[in-house]
Amino acid sequence: MKTTKSIKRIKENITIVEFKKIMAATRGDDSIRENTRLNLLRTFVMLYHTGMRLNELQDLRLQDIKELLENETVKVVSKKTSSERKLYLTKEFKKNLTPLFDFEIEDDENRIICKGSNKNKRTGINTITFIQQINKYLKSVLGSGYTSHSFRQGILSDFGAKGVNIKIMSKFIGHSDIKTTLKYVQPTDEDIMMNLIR
């Protein structure tokens, strides 16, 4: 019996175009609860500007966001690699991030992604459930080629297109080996079209 190989699908980058589309769709989606909307918006902003992994994002507390806004940088720990990395704040990142937090109401120890609508609730969401929720929503709005890793791939591809040194890219994203970083750098359709020679 002949078995067919599964097709390796193209993984798409999330660029500014896709980011704006997913943010607009989330804000205008009346089918989701307010707490879910806030979780999605916080997730998409953080992933777009930092290239974080979802499990890193789930560990962030309100105090981390405060530190990031005050100092323009904050250290986070990656469970996957058991190492620290820094997040950096740009003007655009600050503009997108600030409206998503109410520092008067929320407790510093709160996770930034949590269950329920109670602002003081600290209960996190199961990691597998959270990953499935994010990926399902991305696919419903952007299409089948998109997952949470599309943010990571997108930011590294943007760095690559600008000619940023691979060591800077690797340190920014939290990789210990630049070969891992290079795997993420994928040209967009526009990059290819602009460089066609025939």
From TrEMBL:
GO molecular function: DNA binding
Top-rank lineage group of the source organism: Bacteria
GO terms for biological process, alphabetical: DNA integration; DNA recombination
CDD domains (UniProt xref): DNA_BRE_C
Keyword vocabulary terms for this entry: DNA recombination, DNA-binding
SUPFAM superfamilies registered for this protein in UniProt: DNA breaking-rejoining enzymes
Domain Tyr recombinase: 9-198
UniProt similarity note: Belongs to the 'phage' integrase family.
Stated name of the protein: Site-specific integrase
Species this chain originates from: Candidatus Sulfurimonas baltica
